[in-house]
């Protein structure tokens, strides 16, 4: 059964209400109001009117005031309003339309014109509602698809990171710790006005998600070097250092195949892989970058990675306690590490200690 449309007729003259009601009642359900206050109550009735025919000159609230009130109310602002008025000057019509009405009919009315205008605007309103519903459905599907892509991305990251783990002596807990150090540093550094715009919630999430790929390039390092149970020779260390560029090159190729190169997590993953061994004073590798020429993502990862290496046991060193590791980081302020990042670390070093405890090997 076709849904019956509801028309609200608002006029202080009984004869006008009778004329309009008789004209419309054969096709629509008609509600009536004789003043502005009644009109506002009827507009919020159940069911709400699908369209309102509104007189302008009424005692108390004028039609213009009623229209403005309806358009300011989220519950009624979508209801189309047609002014039906004896005020026939062009400026009257212009003023009426400026308040939010969709049409203006002058009295005395032409029944054929009123019927046609009502029919056309109801059809337009129905089309707008249908389009809105379709857009909402489409947006929901896009959100679902986006969520699926993000889940796939996150799984891919962890799979790639796990691949690197299988060839290294480091554990999966190292990945869990370092990505949390990076997030904690970024959240604290964002309090510095200098970095507020660089570290949005989205960016920090991307840094957190891409941090596990910082050592992905180690899959290209020979086992004889990567798994050597002792200190590396200078030549071996030169080969080991190439893991930064190997990881960066692999992620760059993936990034070039991405449709979203401006905000893709691959860009942050590439920066982190390439630059987490750069040093503030230019003595790092692979490019010897200095200061802010090092991407912020790499400067954050450098602190996270070194701290975790210091508190972890290696074949060439015992695990340091938090205080000793923290002291080394602070000594590196301004030479190894970005001073601002170290200052952020100092504010949250207890968080680092807790993360290390929560995700210990």
UniProtKB/TrEMBL annotation:
Molecular function terms in GO for this entry?
phosphoric diester hydrolase activity
Q: A Pfam family name for this chain? A: Response_reg
* Entry-linked SUPFAM superfamilies: CheY-like, HD-domain/PDEase-like
Question: Does the record bear Phosphoprotein in its keywords?
Answer: yes
Cross-referenced PROSITE patterns, in alphabetical order? HD_GYP, RESPONSE_REGULATORY
Q: Which residues are recorded as modified (4-aspartylphosphate)?
A: 55
**Record domain Response regulatory: where:** 6-122
Whether Magnesium counts among this entry's keywords is no
**What processes in GO biological process is this protein linked to?**
phosphorelay signal transduction system
Protein name, per record = Two-component system response regulator
- Originating organism: Pontibacterium sinense
């Amino acid at each position: 059964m076709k849904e019956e449309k509801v028309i609200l007729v608002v006029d202080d003259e009984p004869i006008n209400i009778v004329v309009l009601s008789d004209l419309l009642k054969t096709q629509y359900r008609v509600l009536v109001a004789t003043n502005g206050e009644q009109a506002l109550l009827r507009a919020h009735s159940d069911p709400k009117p699908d369209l309102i025919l509104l007189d302008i000159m009424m005692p108390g609230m004028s039609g213009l005031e009623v229209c403005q009130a309806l358009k300011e109310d989220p519950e009624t602002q979508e209801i189309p309003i047609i002014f039906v008025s004896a005020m026939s000057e062009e400026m009257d019509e212009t003023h009426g339309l400026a308040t939010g009405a969709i049409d203006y009919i002058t009295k005395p009315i032409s029944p054929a014109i009123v019927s046609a205008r009502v029919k056309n605007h109801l059809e337009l309103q129905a089309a707008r509602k249908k389009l809105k519903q379709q857009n909402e459905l489409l947006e929901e599907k896009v959100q679902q698809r986006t969520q699926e892509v993000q889940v796939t991305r996150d799984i891919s990251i962890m799979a790639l990171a796990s691949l690197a783990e299988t060839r290294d002596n480091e554990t999966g807990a190292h990945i869990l710790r370092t990505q949390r150090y990076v997030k904690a540093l970024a959240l604290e550094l964002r309090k510095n006005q200098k970095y507020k715009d660089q570290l949005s919630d989205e960016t920090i999430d991307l840094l957190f998600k891409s941090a596990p790929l910082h050592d992905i390039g180690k899959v290209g390092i020979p086992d004889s070097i990567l798994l050597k149970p002792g200190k590396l020779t200078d030549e071996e260390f030169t080969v080991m250092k190439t893991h930064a560029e190997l990881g960066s090159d692999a992620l760059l190729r993936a990034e070039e195949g991405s449709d979203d190169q401006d905000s893709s997590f691959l860009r942050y993953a590439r920066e982190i892989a390439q630059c987490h061994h750069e040093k503030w004073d230019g003595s790092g590798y692979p490019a010897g970058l200095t200061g802010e020429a090092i991407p912020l993502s790499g400067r954050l990862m450098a602190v996270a990675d070194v701290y975790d290496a210091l508190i972890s046991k290696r074949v060439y060193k015992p695990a340091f306690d938090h205080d000793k590791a923290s002291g080394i980081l602070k000594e590196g302020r301004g030479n190894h590490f970005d001073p601002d990042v170290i200052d952020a670390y100092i504010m949250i070093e207890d968080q680092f200690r807790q993360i290390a405890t929560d995700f210990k090997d």
